[in-house]
Amino acid sequence: MKAVKSVLGKLIQQEFGRESYQLYAEKLERKESMDIFCDIYERLHGKSAAHLNLALKNLLDSVQVSIRISRNFLYISIGYLAAVAALFFIGAADCILYPAVAAVSVCYAYKWLEFIRNRYCDRDVRIVLIYKIALFHLLEENCLQKEGGKV
Questions:
Q1: CA distances from residue 122 to 25, 44, 100, 117, 143 in whole angstroms, order as listed
Q2: Can you tell me the distance from the alpha carbon of 134 to that of 61, in angstroms, rounded to the nearest whole number?
Q3: Secondary structure of 46-65 as H, E, C letters
Q4: From the CB of residue 24, how many other CB atoms can be counted at a distance below 10 Å?
Q5: C-alpha neighbours within 13 Å on the C-beta side of residue 58
Q6: Which of 17, 47, 105, 108 could disulfide-link 51, Cβ–Cβ 3.0 to 4.6 Å?
Q7: What is the distance between the alpha carbons of residues 8 and 14, in angstroms, rounded to a whole number?
Q8: % of the chain beyond a pLDDT of 90
Q9: CA 126-132-138 angle, 5° bins
Q10: Is 90 helix (H, G, I), strand (E, B) or coil?
Q11: Please, how many CA atoms are within 13 Å of residue 121, restricted to the half-sphere of its CB?
């Protein structure tokens, strides 16, 4: 079974590859954030403004999904408790009750793991913040070049 990964970690792996993600994680542990910034900046430097805008849109979409997972978890928990209570209160036969409770519990366990992974993904958040800074810097640089200003 594949491990549940954070939405932000998936984004970085999609944009830069699994090997780069692992390298960035190691560099964060060694407090080499500037190396990560320089690598991301160099990879993005030759890209068009349209590509950078698309990358920024993907980044913002991923952040929204991550936030939505955290916000919806309370409602998922309430729904889980209501579903389990309803199953017990309807007085279903044991051959239906136990598999139904097990199925609901497995689904809830998956959502709980997803919530935990996205809520406490400090490493991924730090890499994404570095990525965001590099994107903003390059987009600002592109804007200034179009206006004829100096960078």
A1: 10, 23, 35, 10, 31
A2: 17
A3: CCCHHHHHHHHHHHHHHHHH
A4: 25
A5: 18
A6: 47
A7: 10
A8: 81
A9: 140
A10: coil
A11: 26
User: Most distant CA pair in the chain: distance in Å?
Assistant: 76
**DSSP state for residue 3 in the 8-state scheme:** P
pLDDT band at residue 1 under the 50/70/90 scheme = very low
| Two tokens, residue 127 | 């890499």
Place of tokens 């430097």: 45
Residue with tokens 């809830």: 108
Q: What is the CA radius of gyration of the chain?
A: 21
By C-alpha distance, which of 28, 30, 34 is closest to 121? 28
15: number of CA atoms within 13 Å, CB side? 28
The token duo for 7 is 């939405």
pTM for the model: 0.80
Mean pLDDT over 104-124 rounds to 94
Residues 55-71: tens digit of each pLDDT: 999 999 999 999 999 99
